[in-house]
TrEMBL record:
InterPro entries: cNMP-bd_dom, cNMP-bd_dom_sf, RmlC-like_jellyroll. It comes from Chitinophaga silvatica. The lineage of its organism: Bacteria, Pseudomonadati, Bacteroidota, Chitinophagia, Chitinophagales. Residues 16-137 form the Cyclic nucleotide-binding domain. This is Crp/Fnr family transcriptional regulator.
Amino acid sequence: MVIDENLKQFFDFVALFYDLNAIDLQRVHNFLQYKKVSAGEVILEKGQRVKGIYFINNGVLKVSGKNEHGQEGVLYFISTNQFGTTPRSYYLNTASDETIIAACDSEIVLFPKRDLDAMVVGSPCFRELMNSILQQETIFRIDERKEMFKEKEISKAFKKFIIRYPEIAIKVSPKDMASFLCMSDYKYGNLKYLLV
């Protein structure tokens, strides 16, 4: 089978964890939806049901909603070679409390939920793998956010983020970075100059 070049990265990544047989490879290939999105393009609007699991070929998506302080802002980023979605909507099949937006021009692959759910009949192990990856990435993002905000000084949290995620920091807007760090655009702008 010839794999669409736009989907190759997805299959290369999944192959690190799971060997798809020829039948499953064809089924998954037929389900996947590749899309280029522009910075600011809404992938999932708050109040909609999630469409599935997203794999980021290239770029960064931001997930926005109410943070731990009850303020609207960027909760986390999903970047190249990561999976993501809005977990509550995905698992409970409810309207999403969060919005997913392209933080920069990006290439994404959607694995529709209905098709992934259908795979339980023929390939329950593959479906479980996808759910496991999604759960682990969700837990990782929550833990990382908690770790980031252990720092009492916002400048230390900012430095920690820049060091750990330079590929995200160079692609997202200062406004998104400030929102993620729970600070005003003005403070963020001043902080950048203090670090130089």
